[in-house]
Amino acid sequence: MDTREVLAALAAIAQESRLGIFRLLVQLGPEGMAATKIAEQLDIAPSSLSFHLKELTHAKLITSRSEGRFVIYSADTAVMNGLIGYLTENCCGGVPCGPGSCDTEQSPT
User: 12 vs 7, 18, 19, 57, 100, CA distance in Å?
Assistant: First the structure.
């Protein structure tokens, strides 16, 4: 991911409803969920949901597909993993992050 894409993704999920939508879709996996069900599950008005889905789609965090008369939304896990990778790219000096891999103790100055 480039910096522009990272900023768009972070801006998109830096809002409570959009973060909730994204988390729900990540939990559902590739099956995804229809917009109407997302609105019901998260108690978001359809007009607001439409705006939030547009923002998440613009940031490429979610994708949509038609199934009959429904639009099904799913999290794009490749983009999510790219964002996580970008954010952790320089973590621990390039050593894979995990318990005990970073010296997190600060020495007194």
Answer: 8, 7, 8, 9, 32
Contacts 24+ apart (CB under 8 A), 102-108: none
Question: What end-to-end distance do the CA atoms of the chain give, in Å?
Answer: 37
Write the pLDDT tens digit of every residue in 19-62: 999 999 999 999 999 999 999 999 999 999 999 999 999 999 99
Residue whose C-alpha is closest to residue 34's, from 68, 63, 73, 81: 73
Find the Cα–Cα–Cα–Cα dihedral 36, 38, 39, 40, rounded to 10°. Answer: 90
* Enclosing H/E stretch for 81: helix 77-88
The residue to which tokens 């010296």 are assigned: 103
Q: What is the pTM of this model?
A: 0.82
For residues 84 and 22, is the Cβ–Cβ distance under 8 A?
Answer: no
Q: Which residue has the tokens 């993704």?
A: 9
